[in-house]
Specification:
CATH class: Mainly Beta
Helix content: 10-25%
Structural class: mainly beta
Shape: globular
Mean pLDDT: 96
Strand content: 35-45%
CATH topology: Jelly Rolls
Number of helices: 2
Bound molecules: succinic acid, manganese (II) ion
Largest sheet: 7 strands, antiparallel
Length: 200
């Protein structure tokens, strides 16, 4: 683990998880996904390019009715609990006394991306959003609270953790592309991103 990098209020912890911790986390996430399979969220503009699932009291659902946090997977089941290894990351970096209520799981294949957006559907904005990157490198773009203005980009690698809190809590961010096959963590390539959130 090296010193955190600060970019527009975002705090990036490069190499927060070593390879053994990443491997262990992938095993736990596969167990979660066995019980809460990845699905393709739809928006009014069509299907999203990432596939999603979640662990915890809430997951994030988007369909043609709009988007929201929901206590149930689209299949109707409650979400599996957040693995202890994931909560431990939150406890180490969040600076927040509340426990995460949602661990959103985003799966990026070679063509997936995520447009610039703000995470603003949570009630308690004193808690950060904590993001964990696993697998292929991702070009992460950080912007401003207001729309537009100058942005900066950084390649997030497997094991990196980003804390979006304080001035960055409501800042725009997104993933322009992934470098498919850049990591050996996931046998078929791709990227998993976890975002931990306090929802209520
Ligand atoms: C997100 O903002 O929900 C995902 C960020 C990422 O994939 O790094
Ligand atoms: Mn986000």
């Amino acid at each position: 683990m090296t010193e955190p990098i600060r970019q527009k209020g975002f705090v990036i912890h490069p190499g927060f998880l070593d390879r053994a911790a990443q491997d262990a986390l992938v095993v736990r996430l596969r167990e979660v996904l066995d019980n809460a399979p990845l699905f393709t969220p739809r928006t009014r503009r069509g299907p999203m390019s990432v596939r999603m699932s979640a662990a915890g009291a809430y997951g994030w659902i988007s369909d043609t009715r709009g988007y929201r946090y929901d206590a149930r997977h689209p299949d109707g089941l409650v979400w599996p609990p957040i693995p202890d290894e994931v909560t431990a990351i939150w406890n180490a970096v969040s600076g927040c006394t509340r426990a995460p209520e949602c661990c959103l799981i985003n799966w990026y294949d070679s063509a997936a991306r995520m447009g610039l957006h703000r995470d603003e559907d949570e009630a308690d904005l004193s808690c950060p959003v904590v993001s964990v990157s696993l697998g292929d490198d991702a070009l992460f773009r950080t912007g401003n609270v207001a729309r537009g203005g100058r942005t900066e980009s950084i390649w997030l690698k497997s094991g990196d953790v980003v804390v979006m809190g304080g001035a960055a809590r409501l800042a725009h961010h997104g993933v322009d592309r992934i470098r498919f096959g850049s990591s050996t963590l996931l046998p078929n390539g791709g990227r998993i991103n976890l975002t931990l959130r306090v929802v209520t």
